[in-house]
# Entry
Amino acid sequence: MNNKVIKKNQLHSVLEQCKPVFVAVFIFSFVVNIFTLLSSMYSLQVLDRVLGSRNLDTLFFLTLIMFCIYISLGLIQIARSFTLIKLGEWLDKKLSPELFAISIQNAAIKQTIGASQNLRDFQTVKGFLTSSGINTVFDAPWTIIFIAVLFYIHPWMGWLSIVGAVIIFSCALINAFAINKNLHLSNDYNIKSMSQSDIATRNAEVIEAMGMMKDVTANWHHANQAALDCQSIASYRNGIISMSSRYMIRNLISMIVTALGAYLCITQPLNFTCGGMILSSIIVGRALAPFDNAIEMWKQMTTSLKAYRRLEVAFNDESQRNASMALPSPDGIVSVENIYFAPVSSSQKNLAPGATPNYTLKGVNFDLQGGDILAIIGPSAAGKSTLAKLIVGVWKANQGVVRLDGADVYSWNRDDFGKHVGYLPQDVELFSGTIKDNIARLRENADSDDIVNAAKLAGAHDMILRLPNGYETDIGISGSNLSGGQRQRVGLARAFFGNPKLVVLDEPNANLDEIGEQALVNALKTAKERKITTIIVSHRPSILSSVNKILIMQEGAVAAFGDREEIMARFAKPTTDIKENK
# Structure
């Protein structure tokens, strides 16, 4: 079985491994219910045996037995609780890291919701599986035993419990019908509002600078209010039905049990005693408890089921990477072979038969040798940044393939691939931590010389030394303590960390001043000397002096490709008004 299949079924596989634990919890539930049944017998024995015989020895031993049963019951409940706690810890260790990685990978290809929502969904499902919710599920089958005992006490009590169960179960079905739609809508709106909150946080500077707070808040409030409205409707309906069931139906049934018991005690004193009346009242309540709990827990069960289905999507929609073994260090030979690419979206997934996708890239072909420096230029929306993502294997082409030294970059083992490749995206994002951590790609125990060498190659070493704590400077959340140019140069150093053989830079000079741009030019010269194949997406013509290959993109296709001198000769006036492709 390959790694792809294992990953796609990991959620089911892990839950399959939980079966022995659930069997143990089921056994605990069996013992708990048996002890509960035995404890209810205590009242029957005291009323019918002790009071009738006035035998204190019988009372003493019955009480001693019940004392042992209650102690044992408490220990079993603790064991059941601890078992579920350990199960929750185990589930976290087995699934959380993998789910986080899959969420990030799927978010990169624009297929699924973000990691934070997937992790919240996991906590919801785990909470149900390791809390009283699962105990209610396991306690439910023992209702049959309690009803059988009621039939043994007296058939009328058994039939009364069945009628009560049917009524309460009908309330549960009505509750499900009344709240399910609104709960689903509330969940969907809540996810949307949380997503808008995350986006607004990332764009806080834009919101403050352009006075967008009122409109952004209104936009978020619309989704949040919709979630609250749906949640309120579901809560009101659930409250009416659950409270009606608990305080009307259950009390009425309890009253009827007492009245029926009293009637049987009077009319059938030989077949039904006062102890039987008390025992019936206790067991009827215990037999109907799972049905009553189902109404109370329906919201939790519905939410957990919805979260579980989203988790299945997260695992099953994982990008189709055929994870392979680690490969030898490449020489940086890049081959882009007849690439066609259309973004992942519902419109692309649900195309009519025979319809052609709206391709962003169309038939892109070119080859680079180790050490080549390529500039990709072209107007906005020409597909430059899309091509960069395909070259580093973030996205998968609909047709064609990108190869590094003959190997498909998308199928290449990501951990191994990252050792040979550097990437600077158009929007530079840094991680919370120090300058050193970010340049080293968060690698623990990274060699200090490698970090400094990468910074020097990117022309960032002197800039870093001027910071308050040098390489140990805390950059703040997402690099908030650095300027745009400083973040760009730290990102550039990160791209060159670890002696990569292929480096792809998307608008590396967008935020650089004259000194920073000169440092970039020097970095490109050093990369050429070290035979590092470098691909630069840029709209600034000044960078063309540092490259030996030029690729011009127009409307997703290659308009021209070749040596710099050849391309510049063909286009006597170099394109100076080319804008970046966002």
User: Anything to note?
Assistant: Residues 245 and 541 are 75 Å apart (CA to CA). The two ends are 40 Å apart (CA to CA).
